[in-house]
Amino acid sequence: MGARHLKTAALTANVATNQKVTDIVKGVIDDIKANGDKAVRSYSEKFDKWSPESFKLSESQIQDIIAKVPAQTVADIKEAQKNVRTFAEAQRATITDVEIEIQPGVFLGHRNNPIDRAGAYIPGGRYPLLASAHMTIITAKVAGVKHVIACTPPIAGEIPYATVAAAHFAGADEIFLLGGTQAIAAMALGTETIKKVDFIAGPGNAFVAEAKRQLFGEIGIDLLAGPTEVLVVADDHADPFTIATDLLSQAEHGPDTPAVLITTSEQVGKESIRFADEILKKMPTRELAGTSWRDYGEVIVVDSLDEAYELADVFASEHVQIFTQNPREALDKMTNYGALFLGEKTCVSYGDKCIGTNHVLPTRHAGRYTGGLWVGKYLKTQTYQEVVSEKASGEIGRLCGRCSRAENFEGHARSGDLRAYKYLKDPHEWIDEAKK
């Protein structure tokens, strides 16, 4: 029968950047490039109504802020960060330096060197995403980044206490109460008071994403992120109430979250729709979650799990939950996703907040060619080579000469000729004439 929709998305996710956003961001970047701190302050006043004596928090300010955070919240931050750190350290342990002797006297290798300075953007906006501090700062520090700057915006003119605490406990070397395009531009370009970084990570709104896009090349970035995405693959044993709950848990991120169910059971599909509509009635974030579910929600019935996995790979969703009798099967059946959540005992919210895997993940089909943020993103794998044998240098020189002349690179060829001349006594007329 093929795939059939029980619920079809009313809208298609818009991957194009609004031209107005592009123009505003470019104007802010150009102004900060020309006017530094003065421009940063002007935009912070304009967009966030925030203009303190210093955007950078002093150590005493940080300690005063932490003192205002409930003890249970501090304990929870530390426990979640322990999980993130433990997993990041395990990832780092898999990345090794390499050196091999490919032939006698010829050594090739690579070193994994950390970036010197990184910026971590921790969003505010609708929600204080303090978990983003765990994901960006701890991961950088485990990779060995020497200096990490954290930027987070004030929320409605107020200090986000828990976010500041999370950034501090994660190991941020400097914390700035600064948000939006102005924060990204200041970190990427540098100002009188904010030293330029080499790499910026962290999610954000359309303006933050566009600023990272425009500044990519000036600095490295983690991902070009779009709206949150969630997809559930379910068989006929899956619990529709759990499916509905988990789809809506991600739909509350914003009004444009694709929330998709692919199932082999029409009954599971229909019941999931019914429960989603029922849960939304009393859900505190129903305005956002309901808009996403109405406009971007899909429920698709397929004939087999193989077809479900194949279709899920086409979606290449940021978050993919597997609610089947054998959820680990997805590890072999699927390759396109940001992260997999296997079985009904886990959920995307665990990954978002506390379980230890990174929540900065690819969206807009980018899971087809990249993974999410991890320690490897903060490392530069840099190669080196050394020839210590005269005989080997001469022989490679001969090869280099032939390879280079096949491409009409005479200058390259002559570097090879010279080694063959010096170490193997090969005659080369151009060398003898140049040395006269």
TrEMBL record:
GO cellular component, one term: cytosol
UniProt KW keywords: Amino-acid biosynthesis, Histidine biosynthesis, Metal-binding, NAD, Oxidoreductase, Zinc
Descriptive protein name: Histidinol dehydrogenase
Enzyme active site: 318-319
Single Gene Ontology BP annotation: L-histidine biosynthetic process
Taxonomic placement: Eukaryota, Fungi, Dikarya, Ascomycota, Pezizomycotina
Membership in a protein family: Belongs to the histidinol dehydrogenase family.
Top-level taxon of origin: Eukaryota
Keyword Lipid metabolism in record: no
Catalysis performed (reactions): L-histidinol + 2 NAD(+) + H2O = L-histidine + 2 NADH + 3 H(+)
GO terms for MF: histidinol dehydrogenase activity; metal ion binding; NAD binding
InterPro entries: Ald_DH/histidinol_DH, Histidinol_DH_CS, Histidinol_DH_monofunct, Hstdl_DH
Function: Catalyzes the sequential NAD-dependent oxidations of L-histidinol to L-histidinaldehyde and then to L-histidine.
Required cofactor names: Zn(2+)
Organism field: Neoarthrinium moseri
